[in-house]
């Protein structure tokens, strides 16, 4: 129900050209840094799947683990990408790293997704580190802007939108600003 209420707030704000407020975004975040791992493939032996889950829960969310199916998990081609804003972006990074290092014939596959414990899909997702920064520092009065990259997991908090974008880097957009 809380998710539906937040979506209604976002839809109403978007219809009126308004930005989201801090409370609406905060309600969509996971300040508890604990993670859970969803196995995305079933071709791994049980012992390797268990090992990936153990390694995965120690990584910050959002993340993905990719492996070369021809080689197993104990090779250089096994890549974990973590601390992105979505598992989709983490998957792209993990697959790119895995495919660059693989020696097997078959292309790499994402075998695990790392998400915050209790994850539900929301229109706004921030990495564990960005969530911590947002919750700790996007408070009080005064101008500020929070920018994120959907592709790299980068973020920045600065006094102006231009400064946040410059600090965040390429492919960033301003998630919210306070004047």
Estimate the mean pLDDT confidence.
88
The gross shape turns out to be elongated
Number of discrete helical segments: 6
Please, how many domains?
2
Separation of the first and last Cα atoms:
31 Å
| Major sheet characteristics | 4 strands, antiparallel
Radius of gyration: 18 Å
Strand order of the largest sheet: 1-4-2-3
Number of strands: 7
Report the helical percentage.
25-40%
Order of helices and strands: HHEHEEHEHEEHE
* Percent of sequence in beta strands: 15-25%
- Which class best fits the helix and strand makeup? alpha+beta
Poorly predicted runs of 5 or more residues? 1-18
Structural summary, described in words:
- This protein is an alpha+beta fold.
- The protein folds into 2 domains: 2-31 and 122-178, no CATH class; 35-116, no CATH class.
- The protein has helices at 2-15, 22-26, 46-56, 87-101, 128-137, 161-168; strands at residues 35-39, 63-67, 79-81, 109-116, 144-149, 155-158, 172-178.
- The strands form 2 sheets. It has a 4-stranded antiparallel beta sheet with strand order 1-4-2-3.
- A hairpin with a 5-residue loop joins β5 (144-149) and β6 (155-158).
- The longest helix is centred in the middle third of the chain and has 15 residues, at 87-101.
- It is elongated.
- Residues 1-18 have low confidence and may be disordered.
